[in-house]
Amino acid sequence: MLKDLTLGQYYPEESPIHRLDPRVKLAGTLVFIITLFFGQSVWLYLGAFLYLLIVIRLSRVPLRYIVRGLKTIVVLILLSALFNLFLTPGDILVKLGPLTITTQGLVTAIFMVVRLIFLIMGSSILTLTTTPNQLTDGMERGLSWLKIFRVPVHEIAMMMTIALRFIPILVDETDKIIKAQKARGADFESGNIMQRARAMIPILVPLFISAFRRANDLAMAMEARCYHGSEGRTRMKPLVYTKNDRLAYLGLALYFALMLAIFITLGSRVI
Amino acid sequence: MPIVSAQNLSFSYELRDEEGNVAEHIDALKGVNLDILAGSFVTILGANGSGKSTFAKQLNALLVPTGGTVFVDGMNTADESHLLDVRKTAGMVFQNPDNQMIASNVEEEIAFGPENLGVEPDDIWRRVDMALAAVGMNAYRKTSPNKLSGGQKQRIAIAGIVAMEPKCIVLDEPTAMLDPGGRREVIRTLHELNEKRHVTIILITHYMEEVVDADYCFVMHQGELVMSGTPREIFSDVETMRRLSLDVPQVTEVAYELQQAGVPLPDGILTSEELTKALTAVRDGGDPAAAVEGCRRAK
Question: Does B269 touch chain A if contact means CB atoms closer than 8 Å?
Fold first, then answer.
């Protein structure tokens, strides 16, 4: 059962969005998220909606894959909608016993729901069209300017790469340990939450020990292969911008300029 | 000039007690002297705790001697300024294939070494192609290492080293976790590398069958080098091998037992073919030693 677990949710397809440089896609996601927080205006959200629609169309990822990502946060969306609906002060619209709904609350709640849905859909597009490897690669090179602030970008990217490689191995190992403990009569299925949590200890302890042993072995193997950090390191597949990437950046800049213009002209007006 | 030369090499671990004080020194290597010729296929044999893995790590400067010196291609491994060059010259493959892979697909895994060396991208591609061909794994270049068998994983680990174009590959029990099929695959690959690309192979093992085809063999026991010679010379001395709690190949053992029982067989029979020829000669009243000799020469 644990074997079916996969990280990320890459949807293989040969679309223009899939072929884009991961740095472009990272920048695109970031810009999209920023514009979502510009303010509460129908026009702003219409712009974001159009942008999202175009990108989804270009990516050729079926809509249901993108919507599936929303399922996990339905509760969160509902909760924030309810809180905004009932707890925003303003002109009273409806009164239901101790609860009041205000016009402002209704507007905020609607915008909040739309914003969260757009947020999740926008970032799902990134993970659906980019393999985890490309993503770490893009982060390493797209964020290398963070080194100025002493952020160890290369090291973080390397850790992510290694984590991705070792997740299936450790999952397998967990499976084995569970079976081994069951064979010795361990009981994971009965008892209350506390008892079940305690039953996890004989799984976690051997798992941690083995993970540390593997880490030690891996560190040695990496050193033996001349690994010495990012300095003087070259890449087999260096990221090079193509014409499409430049076009995408241009489109992105246009989108950002447009949203900024709307934001400035409309100010805090809703419509 | 030998590619690897150990001179009076000693190494000791410190065992610390709970307060962090040195409680005990454990001598893993005690004054080892040996030379390994460039282009040869050498095996190092030894029981658990004989110091053979510690020796292997000395060749890659993962450990540096606490006494004596190790030269790899003329470079002193204790000299920090040669660290990368030493590691580039003597590549190292470890026991557990899972714990030495970094990337999520085969070609990126093989590229890891050359990337660390700062090789240009075009040259990395060439080296990856070359290394994949050298281990016969061309068909798997886009595969995830998790989907490969143990023997295939270990061949990829070897390819990862081959791509760094080392003069010498040190393998620390590379077949210990493999099934017989995987073991054969790996050993065949190593012999091909040795013959076609003239890479010096230093194979550390405790499987006697892997030793038979080597050019030279060293036997270690409790941190000391106790025997050295061709596999035939080593296995002729069945009694010493037993005393060191090491096996000899099954065929050699059968021949030895027959010899003890009074059958006039020569020493150092290594293959079942040789044993068959010798026994046929004994039955037909011929000279078994000459029969074995003829068999060796035919090879």
Answer: no
